[in-house]
Amino acid sequence: MNEDSKNYFENLANGEPIDQAVNEEAIPVSSLAKSANVHIAKTKKVDSELDFFDNDFTSEAEGQLTIDVYQTEAEIIIQSTIAGVSQDDLEIDITGESVSIKGKRERKDEVKDDDFFYQECYWGRFSRSVILPQEINPDKAKALLENGVLTLRLPKLEREKRKKLRIKVN
Prior knowledge:
By secondary structure, this protein is an alpha+beta fold. The protein has one domain (37-155): Immunoglobulin-like. Helices cover 14% and strands 29% of the residues. The chain has helices spanning 3-14, 31-35, 49-54, and strands spanning 38-40, 63-65, 68-71, 75-81, 90-94, 98-105, 124-131, 142-146, 149-155. The radius of gyration is 22 Å and the shape is elongated. Residues 58-170 form the SHSP domain.
């Protein structure tokens, strides 16, 4: 193990801030942030966990969308709560092996920072990409946005698992 890797794991084990690839420090995440619908992917350096909620990260941060991925016999299904996002503000890219969801949620009202009692909702750009556990048919995929829940239905590609091989006699 090289010296950088060793220091990284030592700092992680000791609970010390760890320099990220973008030269920013990791911050502790409170239970409120863990329960939020989106996770901050890029943050400013803050002095304490309480400062995390006092700073405005929406101008430079991109949130990571939370998703559920499960399967039925014929489909892989991806669901995500994306309340407050119109279908015009969503972009979904599908290949046979992966899905990418990008979008933005915009605040309608201008609110001064001093006027907030709580500020837990995420506003701004978000994205999520996932590699699928099985190949799907992107041409037959369907997306539904209903009551703030995005549901992607991705039909599994059915390949014949068995093939009879005929023996040739010479």
